[in-house]
Every structure is written in structure tokens, then in C-alpha cells.
Amino acid sequence: MNKGIRGSLGQTPISEMRDNGAKSFYKMARVLDCFTRSRKHLSISDIMSLTGLPRTTIHRIVASLREIEMIDQDNRRGDYRLGLKMFYYGSAVIANLDLNRHAHPHVLQLHQITGELVHLHMFDGSQMVCIEREEMGAERNTTLTTIEAAPIHTTSVGKAFLAFQEEDLINRIIDEEGLEKRTENTLSTIAELKADLTCILSRGYARDDEENEIGIRCVGAPIHDSRGRVFASISVSGPAERLPESRQDALAPAVIETANRITEALRA
């Protein structure tokens, strides 16, 4: 009689082994989720407090994660931080998305159409990170590409991403990163930011009205992955005097169309 496919020597049923493996994986994920930009180093007690897991369980998980180099221990401080293997996996994810290759011709075309600076950003778990920037060189007719980070609540790329996320993720980012007031125009309260996100969700694009840097305005639109989730965004930015609200609204259809074309290229 077959009851859970238990062997003649009393081995654990396959279904039970599968369940135990899944539970162990979720516990590991809970430990890794404790590490953020603001929580770079954590002790065993810190991880216990954040996860609610017993000390013996935390010790076992941390030992396993150290063995596969996903967590490192600071020999001087005695606490833990994410290991370089996590960077390797993150780099592999970005490479597999192949966003640069699919997006580059569309980014370049948007720059040529508008004559303004164009940024392509991806969400890295806490912030928007620029993976391509197109502008005309000051002395040569060439494009420049740089990598830079942008606060998620102060820029059009950040807000274009944030507006299409679940409430839990929005709240987590606000809690972890805060709402730093970069300029007098920065939306630095939760009520202000969420009201703006509602408007962005309705019209399909975001504005940065000198919220990250005085003298600079931007228009951004979301990019979706193959499952329909917003994971990146693209923007056009320029001097405030050249991008009043009327021109931002005029540029928005081109920014949205570019974002949609990149989305379609990623799905192809």
C-alpha cells in the first residue's frame, strides 16, 4: 500500500522532503531580506529581532549562507553583511535582461527627437540606478554613457516606477530610504508623494519639477517586463527654462511611446 511513497527503511516521504526544503528556502530569504542599504551590517540578535526566528535557526542559516558566500562575516566587528556572490547574481540578472541592447536604439532615437538628455533606469531593490545616459558631448557630436544612482522619490524615473508598484513595496522603500528633501520642491511627506503617485498612475507619466536639483526638470515613463511588471523607466530632462509644464506635457507622448517600444522589444 502506497502512503506518501515512504520506503521500506522508513525514509521521509518525498512530499515532506519537498515541503521542508521550501520552508528552509523561505527562512533563508527572510534572513537575506534583513539586509538593506540602511542596514548594511547585522548581528545575530539583529536578525533574530527582524525575522522572529530562533537563535539556533539563525545560526544554522547564517552558517549555510556563509558557506556559499552569500553572506560574509566582518572579522573585526563580528557581525554580517551581504557577500560578493550576491553582486554576481545581481549582475547576472541585469545581463540576462539584456535591457541595454534592446533599449539602446530607442533611447538614442528619443534623444535625437527631443534634443534633450535621456536617462534609462532600473530598480535595484532600493533605488533607481542609471544604466544608460544619452547626451551630446560639449565639444564632439557623440553620446556619453554613465552609471549613477537617483533617489527614488525625487526624480521622474523613480516616481514613474513607484506609481505602478504594490502598496507594500512603496511603504517599504519609504521606510528604508526615507524622504530626503533635496530641494524646496521635493515631495518630502508620505501624503504629498502618494497624491503625486496617484496622478502619475492616471496620466501614465511622471514629472520632476526641480525636485532633485534646482534648475532641472524631467518627464519619465514606466517600462514593463515580460510579465507586465514595471521594473525600469526612461526620462527626458533639461534646464527648467526649456522644460516648462506645457513642454513637459508635449514631450510626454514621445517618452511614453519610447517606454512602450522598449517593453515590446523585451517581450519579443
Report on the structure:
- There is one protein chain.
- Residues 1-9 and 138-147 have low confidence and may be disordered.
- The protein has nine helices and eight strands.
- The strands form two sheets. Strands 5-4-3-8-7-6 form a six-stranded antiparallel beta sheet, with helices on both faces.
- A hairpin with a 4-residue loop joins strand 3 (117-123) and strand 4 (128-134).
- The protein has 268 residues and is α+β, with helices and mostly antiparallel strands.
- Helix 1 (14-33) packs across helix 3 and helix 5 (99-114) packs antiparallel against helix 9.
- The chain has two domains: 14-89, Winged helix-like DNA-binding domain superfamily/Winged helix DNA-binding domain (Arc Repressor Mutant, subunit A, Orthogonal Bundle); 98-267, Beta-Lactamase, CATH 3.30.450.
Short description:
By secondary structure, the chain is α+β, with helices and mostly antiparallel strands. It has two domains: 14-89, Orthogonal Bundle (Arc Repressor Mutant, subunit A); 98-267, 2-Layer Sandwich (Beta-Lactamase), CATH 3.30.450.
Which structural class do you get from the secondary structure elements?
Answer: alpha+beta
CATH class of the largest domain: Alpha Beta
- Could you tell me the CATH topology label of the largest domain: Beta-Lactamase
Number of strands: 8
Q: Which strand order spans the largest sheet, edge to edge or round the barrel?
A: 5-4-3-8-7-6
Q: Radius of gyration from the CA trace?
A: 23 Å
Number of helices: 9
Main beta sheet: strand number and arrangement? 6 strands, antiparallel
Q: Bin the strand percentage.
A: 15-25%
Helix amount: 40-55%
CATH superfamily of the largest domain: GAF domain
- Uncertain runs with pLDDT below 50, 5 residues or more? 1-9, 138-147
The SSE string, one letter per element, is: HHHEEHHEEEHHHEEEH
CATH architecture of the largest domain: 2-Layer Sandwich
